[in-house]
Write a structure and sequence with these properties.
This protein is mainly beta. The chain has no helices and 3 strands. The protein is globular, with a radius of gyration of 9 Å.
Length: 50
Amino acid sequence: MYECNVCGYVYDPKNGDPDSGIEPGTPFDDLPADWVCPVCGVDKNEFSKQ
């Protein structure tokens, strides 16, 4: 799991991000380069592994 350093949103690969078209089971490292936090909009470089 990866947590957004800005807002605290947690990306869980088991759930994916269906609102952004990310299928469940998608590893964080496989997210598209243009994926952003669905809550605050920062890019994936602002996430830390939990």
